[in-house]
Design brief:
It is built from twelve helices and twelve strands. The protein is α/β, with parallel strands linked by helices and 308 residues long. The chain folds into two domains: 141 residues, 3-Layer(aba) Sandwich (Rossmann fold); 129 residues, 3-Layer(aba) Sandwich (Rossmann fold). α5 packs antiparallel against α6 and α6 runs parallel beside α12. The protein is globular, with a radius of gyration of 26 Å. The relative contact order is 0.11. It comes from Longilinea arvoryzae. One of its GO terms (biological process) is cellular response to iron ion.
Amino acid sequence: MKRLNILLSISILAALLLSACGAAATPTAAPITLTDGLNRSITLAAPAQRIVSLAPSNTEILYAIGAGSQVVGRDDFSDYPTEASKLPSVGGNMGTYSLETIASLKPDLVLAAEINTPELVKSMQDLGLTVYYLSNPKDLDGMYANLKTVAQLAGRESEADALVSSLQKRVQAVKDAITPDAARVTVFYELDGTTDPTKPWTAGKDTFLSQLISMAGGSNIGDNLAGSYAQMSLEELLVQDPSILLLGDAAYGATPEQVAARTGWDALQAVKDNRIYTFDDDLVSRPGPRLVDGLETLAKLLHPELFK
Protein backbone atom coordinates (compact mmCIF):
# COMPACT_ATOMS: atom_id res chain seq x y z
CA MET A 1 0.00 0.00 0.00
CA LYS A 2 2.85 2.36 0.93
CA ARG A 3 4.52 1.69 -2.45
CA LEU A 4 1.21 2.34 -4.27
CA ASN A 5 0.81 5.68 -2.49
CA ILE A 6 4.36 6.65 -3.48
CA LEU A 7 3.66 5.75 -7.14
CA LEU A 8 0.40 7.75 -7.10
CA SER A 9 2.21 10.73 -5.63
CA ILE A 10 4.89 10.55 -8.33
CA SER A 11 2.20 10.31 -11.04
CA ILE A 12 0.34 13.33 -9.68
CA LEU A 13 3.56 15.33 -9.40
CA ALA A 14 4.52 14.42 -12.97
CA ALA A 15 1.09 15.48 -14.22
CA LEU A 16 1.39 18.81 -12.43
CA LEU A 17 4.83 19.39 -13.88
CA LEU A 18 3.62 18.59 -17.39
CA SER A 19 0.65 20.90 -16.92
CA ALA A 20 2.89 23.69 -15.72
CA CYS A 21 5.27 23.21 -18.62
CA GLY A 22 2.38 23.17 -21.05
CA ALA A 23 1.00 26.40 -19.65
CA ALA A 24 4.41 28.02 -19.85
CA ALA A 25 4.78 26.87 -23.45
CA THR A 26 1.45 28.41 -24.55
CA PRO A 27 2.39 31.03 -27.15
CA THR A 28 1.40 34.64 -26.56
CA ALA A 29 -0.33 36.72 -29.25
CA ALA A 30 2.13 37.72 -31.94
CA PRO A 31 2.64 41.43 -32.52
CA ILE A 32 0.65 42.93 -35.40
CA THR A 33 2.76 44.92 -37.86
CA LEU A 34 1.18 46.64 -40.86
CA THR A 35 2.18 49.45 -43.21
CA ASP A 36 -0.35 52.29 -43.22
CA GLY A 37 -1.40 54.80 -45.88
CA LEU A 38 1.47 57.12 -44.99
CA ASN A 39 3.90 54.26 -45.61
CA ARG A 40 4.70 53.96 -41.90
CA SER A 41 5.25 50.61 -40.21
CA ILE A 42 2.76 50.37 -37.33
CA THR A 43 3.08 47.68 -34.65
CA LEU A 44 0.57 46.63 -32.01
CA ALA A 45 1.60 44.20 -29.29
CA ALA A 46 -1.91 42.71 -29.46
CA PRO A 47 -5.26 43.56 -31.08
CA ALA A 48 -6.39 47.04 -30.03
CA GLN A 49 -9.01 47.12 -27.29
CA ARG A 50 -9.37 50.90 -26.91
CA ILE A 51 -9.80 52.57 -30.29
CA VAL A 52 -10.44 56.21 -31.17
CA SER A 53 -11.88 56.69 -34.66
CA LEU A 54 -11.24 59.96 -36.49
CA ALA A 55 -13.54 59.38 -39.48
CA PRO A 56 -17.16 58.27 -39.99
CA SER A 57 -16.07 55.58 -42.46
CA ASN A 58 -13.63 54.14 -39.92
CA THR A 59 -16.32 54.12 -37.25
CA GLU A 60 -18.76 52.33 -39.53
CA ILE A 61 -16.11 49.75 -40.42
CA LEU A 62 -15.33 49.07 -36.76
CA TYR A 63 -18.98 48.50 -35.87
CA ALA A 64 -19.62 46.42 -38.98
CA ILE A 65 -16.82 43.98 -38.10
CA GLY A 66 -18.09 43.60 -34.52
CA ALA A 67 -15.53 45.89 -32.85
CA GLY A 68 -18.02 48.52 -31.68
CA SER A 69 -17.42 47.70 -28.01
CA GLN A 70 -13.72 48.46 -28.53
CA VAL A 71 -14.36 52.02 -29.74
CA VAL A 72 -13.91 54.55 -26.92
CA GLY A 73 -14.00 57.80 -28.90
CA ARG A 74 -15.08 59.18 -32.27
CA ASP A 75 -15.03 62.31 -34.41
CA ASP A 76 -17.89 64.82 -34.55
CA PHE A 77 -19.34 63.35 -37.75
CA SER A 78 -19.50 59.68 -36.73
CA ASP A 79 -23.25 59.27 -36.35
CA TYR A 80 -23.78 55.73 -37.64
CA PRO A 81 -24.69 53.36 -36.18
CA THR A 82 -26.75 55.22 -33.58
CA GLU A 83 -24.77 53.88 -30.63
CA ALA A 84 -21.61 55.45 -32.05
CA SER A 85 -23.04 58.93 -31.55
CA LYS A 86 -23.19 58.26 -27.80
CA LEU A 87 -19.41 57.94 -27.55
CA PRO A 88 -17.21 60.86 -26.45
CA SER A 89 -16.34 63.13 -29.37
CA VAL A 90 -12.75 64.24 -29.92
CA GLY A 91 -13.63 66.98 -32.44
CA GLY A 92 -13.28 67.18 -36.18
CA ASN A 93 -15.60 70.07 -36.98
CA MET A 94 -13.67 72.57 -39.12
CA GLY A 95 -10.79 70.09 -39.05
CA THR A 96 -9.99 70.79 -35.40
CA TYR A 97 -9.39 67.91 -33.01
CA SER A 98 -8.71 67.90 -29.27
CA LEU A 99 -5.43 66.08 -28.71
CA GLU A 100 -6.01 66.38 -24.97
CA THR A 101 -9.33 64.55 -25.22
CA ILE A 102 -7.86 61.86 -27.47
CA ALA A 103 -5.00 61.25 -25.03
CA SER A 104 -7.36 61.21 -22.04
CA LEU A 105 -9.24 58.25 -23.53
CA LYS A 106 -6.02 56.21 -23.29
CA PRO A 107 -6.38 54.57 -26.71
CA ASP A 108 -4.08 51.75 -27.75
CA LEU A 109 -4.95 52.70 -31.34
CA VAL A 110 -6.10 55.89 -33.08
CA LEU A 111 -7.59 55.07 -36.49
CA ALA A 112 -7.15 58.01 -38.87
CA ALA A 113 -8.27 58.45 -42.48
CA GLU A 114 -7.63 60.67 -45.49
CA ILE A 115 -9.81 63.43 -44.05
CA ASN A 116 -7.09 63.76 -41.39
CA THR A 117 -3.87 65.57 -42.23
CA PRO A 118 -0.41 64.02 -41.93
CA GLU A 119 0.37 66.90 -39.55
CA LEU A 120 -2.40 65.76 -37.21
CA VAL A 121 -1.05 62.21 -37.34
CA LYS A 122 2.43 63.46 -36.41
CA SER A 123 1.05 65.52 -33.52
CA MET A 124 -0.62 62.44 -32.07
CA GLN A 125 2.46 60.34 -32.70
CA ASP A 126 4.55 62.92 -30.81
CA LEU A 127 2.28 62.35 -27.81
CA GLY A 128 3.20 58.69 -27.85
CA LEU A 129 -0.07 57.54 -29.40
CA THR A 130 -0.20 54.67 -31.90
CA VAL A 131 -1.90 56.00 -35.04
CA TYR A 132 -2.84 53.98 -38.12
CA TYR A 133 -3.69 56.03 -41.24
CA LEU A 134 -6.22 54.21 -43.43
CA SER A 135 -6.19 55.34 -47.06
CA ASN A 136 -9.42 55.68 -49.02
CA PRO A 137 -10.08 52.72 -51.32
CA LYS A 138 -10.32 53.22 -55.09
CA ASP A 139 -12.93 50.52 -55.67
CA LEU A 140 -15.00 47.93 -53.82
CA ASP A 141 -12.10 45.48 -53.72
CA GLY A 142 -10.09 48.18 -51.97
CA MET A 143 -12.93 48.66 -49.50
CA TYR A 144 -12.95 44.94 -48.72
CA ALA A 145 -9.20 45.10 -48.14
CA ASN A 146 -9.68 48.00 -45.72
CA LEU A 147 -12.23 45.97 -43.77
CA LYS A 148 -9.70 43.19 -43.38
CA THR A 149 -6.92 45.59 -42.40
CA VAL A 150 -9.01 47.15 -39.64
CA ALA A 151 -10.07 43.66 -38.57
CA GLN A 152 -6.41 42.67 -38.13
CA LEU A 153 -5.82 45.71 -35.94
CA ALA A 154 -8.90 44.98 -33.84
CA GLY A 155 -8.65 41.18 -33.69
CA ARG A 156 -11.86 40.67 -35.67
CA GLU A 157 -10.59 38.81 -38.71
CA SER A 158 -13.21 36.04 -38.78
CA GLU A 159 -16.01 38.60 -38.49
CA ALA A 160 -14.52 40.62 -41.35
CA ASP A 161 -14.20 37.54 -43.56
CA ALA A 162 -17.90 36.79 -43.04
CA LEU A 163 -18.85 40.42 -43.71
CA VAL A 164 -16.83 40.61 -46.91
CA SER A 165 -18.37 37.38 -48.17
CA SER A 166 -21.86 38.74 -47.48
CA LEU A 167 -21.12 42.07 -49.19
CA GLN A 168 -19.67 40.35 -52.25
CA LYS A 169 -22.79 38.22 -52.62
CA ARG A 170 -24.99 41.33 -52.49
CA VAL A 171 -22.86 43.07 -55.10
CA GLN A 172 -23.03 40.00 -57.33
CA ALA A 173 -26.83 40.00 -57.03
CA VAL A 174 -26.89 43.55 -58.43
CA LYS A 175 -24.51 42.56 -61.23
CA ASP A 176 -26.71 39.60 -62.10
CA ALA A 177 -29.77 41.85 -62.29
CA ILE A 178 -28.08 44.62 -64.30
CA THR A 179 -27.16 42.65 -67.39
CA PRO A 180 -24.76 44.14 -69.98
CA ASP A 181 -27.63 44.74 -72.40
CA ALA A 182 -29.69 46.69 -69.85
CA ALA A 183 -30.46 50.22 -71.00
CA ARG A 184 -28.23 52.84 -69.37
CA VAL A 185 -30.16 55.53 -67.53
CA THR A 186 -28.59 59.00 -67.59
CA VAL A 187 -28.15 60.40 -64.09
CA PHE A 188 -27.27 63.76 -62.57
CA TYR A 189 -26.17 63.48 -58.95
CA GLU A 190 -26.44 66.81 -57.16
CA LEU A 191 -23.95 67.51 -54.40
CA ASP A 192 -24.92 71.15 -53.97
CA GLY A 193 -27.55 72.87 -56.06
CA THR A 194 -28.99 75.19 -53.45
CA THR A 195 -25.98 77.54 -53.27
CA ASP A 196 -26.16 78.33 -57.00
CA PRO A 197 -28.91 76.53 -58.97
CA THR A 198 -27.37 77.77 -62.22
CA LYS A 199 -24.13 75.94 -61.48
CA PRO A 200 -24.83 72.88 -59.29
CA TRP A 201 -21.94 70.79 -57.99
CA THR A 202 -21.68 67.13 -58.97
CA ALA A 203 -19.25 64.21 -59.00
CA GLY A 204 -16.99 63.43 -61.95
CA LYS A 205 -15.61 60.25 -63.45
CA ASP A 206 -12.83 59.57 -60.96
CA THR A 207 -15.12 59.08 -57.99
CA PHE A 208 -16.62 56.17 -56.13
CA LEU A 209 -20.05 57.65 -56.82
CA SER A 210 -19.58 57.47 -60.58
CA GLN A 211 -18.41 53.86 -60.29
CA LEU A 212 -21.48 52.92 -58.28
CA ILE A 213 -23.85 54.67 -60.70
CA SER A 214 -22.30 52.68 -63.55
CA MET A 215 -22.54 49.41 -61.62
CA ALA A 216 -26.20 50.22 -60.91
CA GLY A 217 -26.96 50.50 -64.62
CA GLY A 218 -26.64 54.24 -65.00
CA SER A 219 -24.51 56.75 -66.86
CA ASN A 220 -23.22 59.65 -64.78
CA ILE A 221 -23.39 62.83 -66.88
CA GLY A 222 -20.80 64.35 -64.54
CA ASP A 223 -18.21 62.14 -66.24
CA ASN A 224 -18.03 64.76 -68.98
CA LEU A 225 -16.59 67.33 -66.59
CA ALA A 226 -12.94 67.90 -65.75
CA GLY A 227 -12.02 66.96 -62.20
CA SER A 228 -13.48 64.63 -59.61
CA TYR A 229 -15.89 67.27 -58.33
CA ALA A 230 -17.02 70.22 -60.43
CA GLN A 231 -19.86 72.57 -61.23
CA MET A 232 -22.07 71.98 -64.25
CA SER A 233 -23.73 74.94 -65.88
CA LEU A 234 -27.48 74.87 -66.31
CA GLU A 235 -26.92 75.15 -70.08
CA GLU A 236 -24.81 71.98 -70.07
CA LEU A 237 -27.30 70.24 -67.80
CA LEU A 238 -30.06 71.02 -70.29
CA VAL A 239 -27.94 69.67 -73.14
CA GLN A 240 -27.22 66.43 -71.26
CA ASP A 241 -30.89 66.24 -70.16
CA PRO A 242 -30.63 63.42 -67.59
CA SER A 243 -33.45 60.95 -67.07
CA ILE A 244 -33.01 60.96 -63.29
CA LEU A 245 -31.96 63.59 -60.75
CA LEU A 246 -30.55 62.35 -57.45
CA LEU A 247 -30.33 64.87 -54.61
CA GLY A 248 -27.30 64.05 -52.52
CA ASP A 249 -27.78 67.45 -50.87
CA ALA A 250 -31.16 66.44 -49.45
CA ALA A 251 -29.68 66.55 -45.95
CA TYR A 252 -29.03 70.25 -46.54
CA GLY A 253 -32.57 71.08 -47.57
CA ALA A 254 -32.86 70.20 -51.26
CA THR A 255 -36.25 68.69 -52.14
CA PRO A 256 -37.81 67.48 -55.40
CA GLU A 257 -40.34 70.31 -55.16
CA GLN A 258 -37.63 72.96 -54.84
CA VAL A 259 -35.68 71.51 -57.75
CA ALA A 260 -38.74 71.42 -60.00
CA ALA A 261 -39.42 75.07 -59.18
CA ARG A 262 -35.91 76.27 -60.15
CA THR A 263 -35.82 78.59 -63.13
CA GLY A 264 -35.18 76.59 -66.30
CA TRP A 265 -35.13 73.20 -64.62
CA ASP A 266 -38.68 72.40 -65.72
CA ALA A 267 -37.29 71.68 -69.21
CA LEU A 268 -35.36 68.67 -67.94
CA GLN A 269 -36.74 65.22 -68.77
CA ALA A 270 -36.28 64.07 -65.18
CA VAL A 271 -38.45 66.94 -63.96
CA LYS A 272 -41.11 66.29 -66.60
CA ASP A 273 -41.23 62.61 -65.64
CA ASN A 274 -41.12 63.38 -61.91
CA ARG A 275 -37.98 61.30 -61.47
CA ILE A 276 -36.28 63.43 -58.85
CA TYR A 277 -35.23 61.50 -55.76
CA THR A 278 -33.66 62.44 -52.47
CA PHE A 279 -30.62 60.34 -51.67
CA ASP A 280 -28.65 59.61 -48.51
CA ASP A 281 -25.22 60.83 -49.56
CA ASP A 282 -23.56 59.03 -46.64
CA LEU A 283 -24.18 55.76 -48.49
CA VAL A 284 -21.85 56.74 -51.32
CA SER A 285 -19.47 59.24 -49.74
CA ARG A 286 -18.22 57.21 -46.78
CA PRO A 287 -15.79 54.52 -48.00
CA GLY A 288 -17.06 51.73 -45.78
CA PRO A 289 -19.41 48.74 -45.97
CA ARG A 290 -22.51 50.89 -46.56
CA LEU A 291 -21.24 51.53 -50.09
CA VAL A 292 -23.00 48.28 -50.92
CA ASP A 293 -26.23 49.71 -49.44
CA GLY A 294 -25.68 52.68 -51.74
CA LEU A 295 -25.20 50.43 -54.77
CA GLU A 296 -28.41 48.52 -54.04
CA THR A 297 -30.38 51.74 -53.49
CA LEU A 298 -29.06 53.23 -56.72
CA ALA A 299 -29.89 50.10 -58.71
CA LYS A 300 -33.47 50.06 -57.43
CA LEU A 301 -33.96 53.74 -58.25
CA LEU A 302 -32.47 53.48 -61.74
CA HIS A 303 -34.03 50.14 -62.66
CA PRO A 304 -37.09 49.52 -60.46
CA GLU A 305 -38.42 47.09 -63.05
CA LEU A 306 -35.56 44.71 -62.22
CA PHE A 307 -36.07 44.73 -58.47
CA LYS A 308 -39.75 44.09 -57.92
